Amino acid sequence: MKNRITYILVAAAIVIAVVFLILTATAQESQFFITVGELGALSAEEQRQPLVVSGAVDGASIVYDETIPQITFTIVDIPSDLKVIEQRGGLAVVLEEAVQDPQAQRLQVVYSGVKPDLLKGSAQAILKGQLGQDGRFYSDDLLLKCPSRYAEDIPEQVED
Amino acid sequence: MIALMGNFLLGLAALAAFYAALAALIGQTKASPTWKKSTDNAMLAYTLLLGAGVLFLGLALLFNQFELQYVHDHSSLALPLYLKLSAIWAGQEGSLLFWSFMQALFSLLAVNANRKKNADSVYIAAAILSLLTAFFAGVTFLVQNPFASLSPVPADGLGLNPLLRHPGMAFHPPALYLGYVGLAVPFAFGLTGLISGKVKEWSQPIHRWTLFSWFGLGIGLLLGMRWAYDVLGWGGYWGWDAVENAALMPWLVSSALIHTDYLREKTENTFNKTYLLAALAYQLVLFGTYATRSGQIQSVHAYTQSSIGPVLLGAQLLLLAVSAGIFFKFRQKSTAASDAPMSLRAIVSRLTTLVLLTLTFSIFLGTILPNLTQVISGQATGVSTAWFDRVSGPQFALLVLLMGLCPLAAMALRQFKRWQLILAGLAGGLLLGVFFSLLLGEFLPLAFMVFSLIGFSITAELFKFAGRQRQTARFNTLRLSSWMIHTGLILLALGVFASKAYEFSDFQSMQLNESVTSGGYQLEYRGIAQEMRADYLETKAELLLSQNGRTLALLSPYLNQYDDGQQTLTVPAVRSSLADDVYVVLSGWSDNGEQATFQIYINPLINFLWFGGVLLLAGGYLALAPLNAKGVGRWLYWIGATLFIGLAVWMMWGSAHGATAPDSNDLQIGSAAPQFETLTDLNGQPLLVDFASSPVTVVNFWAPWCPSCREELPDLQAIWEKYEAQGLALVGITYDTDQAAVQASVDSYGLTYPIVLDPDAALSMQYEVTGVPETYIVDRSGRITFIAIGAASYDVIEAAILESLIQTEASIKGGS
């Protein structure tokens, strides 16, 4: 009986500790997942938080300074709703159209790091970082999904 | 034609599987031998049909049948043979077909193995497994058909993405599928056990199949991690991505499932738990396929999104409802077992299950949080990798602790007293904590605690090993395998933690022949070479890696450009040692390689991760040993074991990874310095340098046009002035042929120590000088005690001279 009580106490302590861990970590390490278009709709306070922004990479805007290393490029708004994307003919088409569209909302990105293998025009970029005072988005964590010539989507991770 | 044949095979297989499910159900309820026989035939038929389907797709890939959309999308004429075959599972449709085939094969094997033992209930399992096969084959046929055709037929295919052209990627998916598909069997057997009430009979097959699936998932995870490490070039191996998590979660739950089995012997009442864990594991497998294939879960790995999402989600919810319903109707009603005393071992085992489940829950929550918050608040909120580290880290640490407590709680260790074990564990912990803190050169309180914890658990496991092997005279495979798995996991944890806590990364932009120090290593950039390959341009850089003057390896990281530079493939060079990996990525270059930039990562103790992983899997393989097999089966098993371990070891350390050993004749500290013939100084006078006649000889290679040499010259002169009287020999050697320039340097720096010309670089070649300046210090016995590649300052040289003197003195004293 004594062992059973010990077990229950320890188990309860573990569960409470895990819940506590999850709550504190979530308070500090969670970020809004938004599109370029949604960025403008956030309040000034929300804009200052760490964010995850996704958009289509404008290939012509990529400038890579390998000596720092730092890349600047522009991402273009694409819808986040998969149904909308499918209606318009799939992700590859949506990305391509977004880059061509002069009306679409754009965001300048400054990424610190080596140029990732999949960074190119009409890739989908998912950037973690913060909006700077100058209106540019500063990031050191970049995920890329590519509707490339190759049919497969590839995991590509870049960590700071 | 091909398309038609493929569709025929696939459609027929789906029908046969559906028929088999029905026939099994009728055979079971009516206890009819005819229907049962018919089920057996149908199961064999659908397995063969799907096998033929996979073979057919494989042949179509092999023979470049681009009239199939799938072949066109995932292969090309230029692709190497093994990659053409691995393209079977590279895409969504092909991998579903492959999955269906495995589901069929495992159903057949699982049912056959239990036909005699569990004759009265095995057709329940046959019905469930056939229904699952029918589902996967049906989805492949109707929604994601790999046999869709193209018209007109293209001349060539698109090819396989360069990032996937890696042996690890060829084997990683099928290994994962062993686990994913295999976990259908414990689930189906669990349902069968509940419905038939034969819980004892079905527990053992559940255990075996769980172990098998756990093993498959383990290989898949480890190969995937190694692939990421070798190919993606960000210095890591795990990014907490949804698809990675989707493979980890069933692995964690099946670990828990394996452990509940040990309690089964003691109390009758654990089948409910076994069933629930098996059902959870399979639900997580289905969640994983959904995450990978629907495009709904934010992941970098996912296939391009397709219409398959709703089908998978619907099937998963249906299965969830059915498995819950059956549980509530047929669950084992509790017996008096709950009053029985609970052993310490049972506590540890239950806590392990609990932590594995809280860990799985945490990872699940982190994975679906963006979707969850999107639904609740309309604003997707996700978590970073730091969240996963923070939340899972302590839970993994707790698992390591529990692995150490397990031997303490076990009753099997009668020859050791419990306090002896505790004391030994604490001592081991303290020892390892101090050892690793010293080794890594920096004391971090948290790291010290974790190292101590790992030391504690390793020591406890060692005692378990010693105690148990002594207890039974016979070689006990099961106990050895359990020990290997747990020790492997602890070592893996050590590698993960140390490489994370002590990670070092650096960015260096280097000129040709420049040498830099990074993370305690010296790297000398030797230039780049470019070559045009089949469909890409390869640019390979060469770097000489050395530490404390000892050359370690020639590193060749490279960067391939495909499609006119549209896509690149960065392959790092990795130099592995027990202490750390030096991981170098070529990130760019300019002026034809006059300058190049590198990302450098030092990953301490990371090889414990790979070694622990291999040990863990070897243990898993051992646990799967066919205990009763004789003759050929036994031999096959051991041959398989050797091949498997050999392959794993080769994957980890055998294949080159862009690091080649330097010439073994290279001069290093401790080797004998090449003796000089008579030298000639600037005035044409002969100069004799005999190492034996001076306590310390400094040999400096230099050239007047070299800026870092000029920096060094005043320091050398100062050394000479200070130590000449005490018997120091110092000689400057230059292979420059322009004697006037040499003389000018000597005059302008006022050099008074002997300077020697080496016009045909014969001396420099003897000392394998690759660039100037290089400095060697030689003791009286002619042994090299110090090497500096690149400029060395006054302080460094003076310290090296004194060190050399101390060593010589010590060896004289030691000798006398």
Automatic annotation (TrEMBL), chain A:
<dbReference type="Pfam" id="PF03100">
    <property type="entry name" value="CcmE"/>
</dbReference>
<dbReference type="GO" id="GO:0020037">
    <property type="term" value="F:heme binding"/>
</dbReference>
<keyword id="KW-0472">Membrane</keyword>
<dbReference type="InterPro" id="IPR036127">
    <property type="entry name" value="CcmE-like_sf"/>
</dbReference>
<dbReference type="InterPro" id="IPR004329">
    <property type="entry name" value="CcmE"/>
</dbReference>
<keyword id="KW-0408">Iron</keyword>
<dbReference type="InterPro" id="IPR012340">
    <property type="entry name" value="NA-bd_OB-fold"/>
</dbReference>
<dbReference type="GO" id="GO:0005886">
    <property type="term" value="C:plasma membrane"/>
</dbReference>
<keyword id="KW-0479">Metal-binding</keyword>
<keyword id="KW-0201">Cytochrome c-type biogenesis</keyword>
<keyword id="KW-0349">Heme</keyword>
<dbReference type="GO" id="GO:0017003">
    <property type="term" value="P:protein-heme linkage"/>
</dbReference>
<protein>
    <submittedName>
        <fullName>Cytochrome c-type biogenesis protein CcmE</fullName>
    </submittedName>
</protein>
<dbReference type="GO" id="GO:0017004">
    <property type="term" value="P:cytochrome complex assembly"/>
</dbReference>
Automatic annotation (TrEMBL), chain B:
<feature type="transmembrane region" description="Helical">
    <location>
        <begin position="396"/>
        <end position="414"/>
    </location>
</feature>
<feature type="transmembrane region" description="Helical">
    <location>
        <begin position="483"/>
        <end position="502"/>
    </location>
</feature>
<feature type="transmembrane region" description="Helical">
    <location>
        <begin position="121"/>
        <end position="143"/>
    </location>
</feature>
<keyword id="KW-0472">Membrane</keyword>
<feature type="transmembrane region" description="Helical">
    <location>
        <begin position="41"/>
        <end position="63"/>
    </location>
</feature>
<dbReference type="InterPro" id="IPR032523">
    <property type="entry name" value="CcmF_C"/>
</dbReference>
<feature type="transmembrane region" description="Helical">
    <location>
        <begin position="600"/>
        <end position="623"/>
    </location>
</feature>
<dbReference type="InterPro" id="IPR013766">
    <property type="entry name" value="Thioredoxin_domain"/>
</dbReference>
<feature type="transmembrane region" description="Helical">
    <location>
        <begin position="351"/>
        <end position="376"/>
    </location>
</feature>
<dbReference type="Pfam" id="PF16327">
    <property type="entry name" value="CcmF_C"/>
</dbReference>
<dbReference type="Pfam" id="PF00578">
    <property type="entry name" value="AhpC-TSA"/>
</dbReference>
<protein>
    <submittedName>
        <fullName>Cytochrome c-type biogenesis protein CcmF</fullName>
    </submittedName>
</protein>
<dbReference type="GO" id="GO:0016491">
    <property type="term" value="F:oxidoreductase activity"/>
</dbReference>
<dbReference type="GO" id="GO:0016209">
    <property type="term" value="F:antioxidant activity"/>
</dbReference>
<dbReference type="InterPro" id="IPR036249">
    <property type="entry name" value="Thioredoxin-like_sf"/>
</dbReference>
<feature type="transmembrane region" description="Helical">
    <location>
        <begin position="635"/>
        <end position="653"/>
    </location>
</feature>
<keyword id="KW-0201">Cytochrome c-type biogenesis</keyword>
<feature type="transmembrane region" description="Helical">
    <location>
        <begin position="446"/>
        <end position="463"/>
    </location>
</feature>
<feature type="transmembrane region" description="Helical">
    <location>
        <begin position="421"/>
        <end position="440"/>
    </location>
</feature>
<feature type="transmembrane region" description="Helical">
    <location>
        <begin position="177"/>
        <end position="197"/>
    </location>
</feature>
<dbReference type="InterPro" id="IPR002541">
    <property type="entry name" value="Cyt_c_assembly"/>
</dbReference>
<feature type="transmembrane region" description="Helical">
    <location>
        <begin position="275"/>
        <end position="291"/>
    </location>
</feature>
